[in-house]
Write a structure and sequence with these properties.
It is built from ten helices and eight strands. The two termini are about 20 Å apart. The protein is elongated, with a radius of gyration of 22 Å. The protein is of the alpha+beta class. It folds into two domains: about 120 residues, 2-Layer Sandwich (Alpha-Beta Plaits); about 80 residues, Bypass-of-forespore C, N-terminal domain (Ubiquitin-like (UB roll), Roll), CATH 3.10.20.420. The chain has a four-stranded mixed β-sheet. A four-stranded antiparallel β-sheet has the order 7-6-5-8. The protein is about 50% helix and about 25% strand.
Length: about 220
């Protein structure tokens, strides 16, 4: 992708960030029209059916989540659960694209754990320590805490990173890839660069994917 094309893409992306609320409103209107059964021109239908590219980080997240699902581990968990005489604590662990949260369900019987897993087939059980059962749920979204506090910006080494709070607080949650600063400065509009340095507020998974996809064009190789 040449510099001119990249610059145009970033300018469009920048305008999209600034008009996010308007875009969401228009998207809701289009969805309502489709739901009502209205016929759209073929070209519009084609656009609606075209899926946006998935960010590299999110694709890796899916692959890692699928890799964690091991039939042997599942069978071993059921075997241990059947033999359990006492369950001291049951915890549901929500693993997000950004962030992780837990909530305790207290003491449950083996039958109650069975019922929970039957109601939530995507959950994966495991034992942690004696008598502690963890039910893992993988969620393709940002955690509530990330939605309230997350920013994307550059760390001190020039890596695109996710921060807990404004970048000046230097609380890095996750590092993605190193950016080619010279290429960015020669291609991007000044206000887009300034926004990146100051920190781009990330409030949902769409913004997360959008920023990753946009700046992946400037990732250094190797």
């Amino acid at each position: 992708m040449n510099a001119t094309r990249i610059k145009k893409q970033l300018q469009k992306q920048w305008r999209r960030w600034k008009r996010r609320s308007l875009t969401l409103g228009l998207s809701s209107l289009v969805i309502a029209m489709v739901w009502a059964g209205m016929y759209l021109p073929d070209k519009v239908q084609s656009l609606l059916s075209t899926k946006p590219p998935v960010a590299i980080e999110t694709l890796q997240y899916y692959q890692q989540a699928e890799a964690k699902s091991d039939p042997k581990e599942d069978a071993n968990f059921w075997k241990l659960l059947n033999k359990s005489k006492e369950i001291k604590e049951v915890v549901v662990r929500h693993s997000y694209v950004c962030g992780e949260e837990e909530r305790s369900l207290g003491k449950l019987t083996v039958d109650e754990i069975y019922n929970l897993l039957n109601e939530h087939p995507s959950w994966k059980g495991q034992f942690e320590g004696q008598g502690k059962v963890v039910l893992n749920e993988t969620i393709h979204d940002l955690s509530p805490t990330c939605k309230e506090r997350a920013y994307m910006s550059l760390d001190k080494d020039g890596n695109l990173s996710l921060f807990d709070g404004p970048p000046e607080q230097d609380k890095v949650i996750k590092t993605f890839f190193q950016l080619d600063i010279n290429s960015m400065e020669s291609s991007l509009p000044d206000d887009a660069l300034r926004h990146l340095y100051d920190g781009i507020r990330i409030q949902d998974i769409d913004e997360y994917n959008s920023v990753l996809s946009t700046f992946s064009d400037y990732a250094r190789e190797g």
